Amino acid sequence: SQQGEEDPQALSIQEGENATMNCSYKTSINNLQWYRQNSGRGLVHLILIRSNEREKHSGRLRVTLDTSKKSSSLLITASRAADTASYFCAVIQGAQKLVFGQGTRLTINP
Amino acid sequence: DAMVIQNPRYQVTQFGKPVTLSCSQTLNHNVMYWYQQKSSQAPKLLFHYYDKDFNNEADTPDNFQSRRPNTSFCFLDIRSPGLGDAAMYLCATSSPGLAGTYEQYFGPGTRLTVT
C-alpha cells in the first residue's frame, strides 16, 4: 500500500525563491528519506531524518518531521535552475524495503 | 568512480522477445533491488535480494525474474515483454547502515522500449 503521499504534485517557481514540498505517510517509521531524480536518471539520496529528530539541515535543504501528524516537509532555499527535478519521500516498509511517494515535480524558472 | 552500473542504458526489444537487463555494484552492499518506473510515477519495487535471499513482491508479474550470481551482479529477466512493460528499470543497492537506515544507491536506469 502507498506509504508516502506528496503534495504538491507539481511546483513551478522562480529562481532564487524557496520551494517547499510535503509528504505524508501512514504507519510508524524509524526514519524518512528524501530523494531527487533528474529527468531520465536514477534517484539520488538527499537526506535522512530519524523518527526522534524534528529538523535536519544539509546545505540549502531543510527537512522537518512531525511524527504526530505523520508528515514531513522538504524546503529548498534560494532555488537554482539545477534544482529542477522530481523529489520523492520514502519510508521503510517491512525489512530493507523503501516505499516511495508519488513525488513532486519541481521546475525552477530562470 | 561509478558505484551502481546498469547496462545497457537504452534497450529496445520486440514484443514477446526475452530481454535481460544487468546491474553491477562496487559498494559491496548486501541488498540489491529492481524497480520499475513508468512516466511521472514513483518507482515500484519488483523484487530484492538480501545476499542470496530472494524477495518477490506479491504483485510482480511472473513474466519478471531475477538472478544474483554473486554480490556484485544482479540481472532482471523479462521472459515475454509486452507493450505495458515499457518503462525505466532502476537498480539500487543498500546495506543496513547505522540503525538499519537502508539508504539506497541507484544506478542511472535502463530505458526499455517494446516494439
Keywords:
heterodimer; A: 110 residues; mainly beta; 6-stranded mixed beta sheet; 11 strands; B: 115 residues; 7-stranded mixed beta sheet; 4-stranded antiparallel beta sheet; 0% helix; globular
Notes on the protein architecture:
The complex is a heterodimer of chains A (110) and B (115). Chain A is 0% helix and 58% strand. With 110 residues, chain A is an all-beta fold. In chain A, strands 2, 4, 5, 9, 10 and 11 form a six-stranded mixed beta sheet that branches. Chain A has a five-stranded antiparallel beta sheet with strand order 1-3-8-7-6, with no helix packed on it. In chain A, strand 6 and strand 7 form a beta hairpin. The relative contact order of chain A is 0.34. With 115 residues, chain B is mainly beta. Chain B is globular, with a radius of gyration of 14 Å. The model of chain B has no long low-confidence stretch (mean pLDDT 93). Chains A and B meet through strand 4, strand 5, strand 9 and strand 10 of A and strand 5, strand 9 and strand 10 of B.
List the helices and strands and how they pair.
The complex is a heterodimer of chains A (110) and B (115).
Chain A: E1 5-7, E2 10-14, E3 19-24, E4 31-37, E5 43-50, E6 55-58, E7 61-66, E8 71-76, E9 85-93, E10 97-100, E11 104-109
Chain B: E1 4-7, E2 10-13, E3 19-25, E4 31-37, E5 44-50, E6 53-56, E7 64-67, E8 73-78, E9 87-94, E10 105-106, E11 110-114
